[in-house]
Design a protein that fits this description.
mainly beta; 0% helix; single chain; 118 residues
Length: 118
């Protein structure tokens, strides 16, 4: 099973980016999914999380600017990031609790870099 994140890059302040995360392999279904980020010298923090029924939680610093969504049929997740700020610069990791034939397991993607700079 693999969790593949994509969509990072360099964007100017005020710009937008869309991150995607796809689970592949022997996955029966996905449970909770989410995005975390880690900036240099800082701890990893929650960006956004989405449940199976699409209930969502957001970190305080991104509320109103970021939107998380998912497609349960495809085991994919996306993060639409608008009004980006320099302080959003970080390595973004996708996370998913996935159901395999032997139960639920936690997975992390490899990280995708988001840099907000003029």
């Amino acid at each position: 099973v693999q969790l593949q994140a994509s969509g990072g890059g360099l964007v100017q302040p005020g710009g937008s980016l869309r991150l995607s995360c796809t689970a592949s392999g022997s996955v029966l279904s996905s449970d909770v999914m989410g995005w975390y980020r880690q900036a240099p010298g800082k701890e990893r923090e929650l960006v956004a999380r989405i449940g199976v029924g699409s209930s969502t939680n957001y970190g305080d610093s991104v509320k109103g600017r970021f939107t998380i969504s998912r497609d349960n049929a495809k085991n994919t997740m996306a993060l639409q990031m608008n009004s980006l700020k320099p302080e959003d610069t970080a390595l973004y990791y996708c996370y998913a609790r996935l159901r395999r034939s032997d139960g639920l397991h936690d997975y992390w993607g490899q990280g995708t870099q988001v840099t907000v700079s003029s």
